[in-house]
Amino acid sequence: MKRFLILSMALIAVAAAPVMAGQTESYGEGVTLDEAVAIDVLLANPNDYVGRKIRVDGIITAVCKKRGCWMQITNPESGDGVRIKVEDGAIVFPYTSMGHEAQAEGIFEAIKLTPEQIEARTEAANDLQEGATCDKDGPKTPAEGAGCDLPPVDQYVYMIRGTGAVIKG
Amino acid sequence: MRLRPLIIATHRDIGYFFAGLTVLYAVSGVAVNHIDDWNPNYVIRREVVEVGVLPFGEPAELGAEVLSRMDITEEPRSVVRMSREELKVFLDQRTLTVTLPGGQVVDEHARRRFAFFEVNYLHLNTGKGFWTWFADVYAVGLLVLACTGIFIIPGKKGLGGRGRWILIIGLSIPIAYLVIAVWR
């Protein structure tokens, strides 16, 4: 029985090693594309990329607090950011990964807003300009708030339906 | 061949083996059931401080100035200018969101919630890989526990009497909920 116990502990240690390593970590399918699209180029010409699998590189500037189901990757040069959304539980981005360099890829999507959403966003943007907050959790800015970070291009919001990512430690 | 001793022994040993994990999963289950009410994975503390009007400059310079005024000696992970009015300074488990040029800083500390982060990591199979397989084994173990459990006690208190009714009541609750919430 003691041997069994020792074997079990060794197995757990081996399995847990990648979690504790704190090095570059791959999520989901990782990154398969060789070249990234610059985020400012992407957001300047979104319709050129809708429906295509793309990769973006940048700094993680926001992460879903509770479920880790999205993260925002920002080009540190321009400040432009794009949200990488994944199915709940399929990939979990660690909240503590903010500030790390990351590469992420997936299908670039345009989501048409409803009139109610457009109205809500307009009000939120106006409130933010007056220094108000974006949601109840605390001070927000257009770059961090729920939905407030997406550029107001036409009546669509753009995001990447993420398939994988690599976060550098 | 008498089957009951084998059933009891199987139930006992699998029960011992998975008792610890069942407790962990139960704790995590309650924690994530109430995810709308709290953050089961991280403790996030936020405070607002004023560091005074900041000069113009590159993000790295501004970040260093903010850290200096806040007496923080830690080297930042990165500094990003999010917009003309906003700078973010990322430290280990800490993010400073600075309003420019006014100097209001939202200082957010985030740390893993002790024990809950780990049990949720297991329960939600965040790590995938080995744990996917082990969790599958656990699921089979629970199935065996359920199937052997109902045959442990013979007679009136077992499946032939009281046990049958308790089993039916237990099954009827999820079925009734589905009828009301999904199948109507």
Layout of secondary structure:
The complex is a heterodimer of chains A (169) and B (184).
Chain A: H1 2-20, E1 25-28, H2 39-44, E2 53-63, E3 70-74, E4 81-85, E5 101-112, H3 115-129, E6 156-167
Parallel strand pairs in A: 4-6
Antiparallel strand pairs in A: 1-6, 2-3, 2-5, 3-4, 5-6
Chain B: H1 4-33, E1 42-50, H2 59-69, E2 78-83, E3 86-91, E4 94-99, E5 104-112, H3 116-123, H4 130-149, H5 162-181
Antiparallel strand pairs in B: 1-5, 2-3, 3-4, 4-5
Helix pairs in contact in B: 1-3, 1-4
Structure notes:
The complex is a heterodimer of chains A (169) and B (184). Mean pLDDT of chain A is 80; it is low at 17-21 and 132-147. In chain A, 24% of the residues lie in helices and 29% in strands. Chain A has a five-stranded mixed β-barrel with strand order 2-3-4-6-5. Chain A has one domain: OB fold (Dihydrolipoamide Acetyltransferase, E2P) (Beta Barrel), CATH 2.40.50. By secondary structure, chain A is an alpha+beta fold. Chain B is an alpha+beta fold and 184 residues long. Chain B has three domains: 1-39 and 114-152, no CATH class; 42-112, no CATH class; 153-184. Chain B is 48% helix and 20% strand. In chain B, a hairpin with a 4-residue loop joins strand 4 and strand 5 (104-112). The radius of gyration of chain B is 27 Å and the shape is elongated. The two termini of chain B are 47 Å apart. Chains A and B meet through helix 1 of A and strand 1, strand 2, strand 3, strand 5 and helix 4 of B.
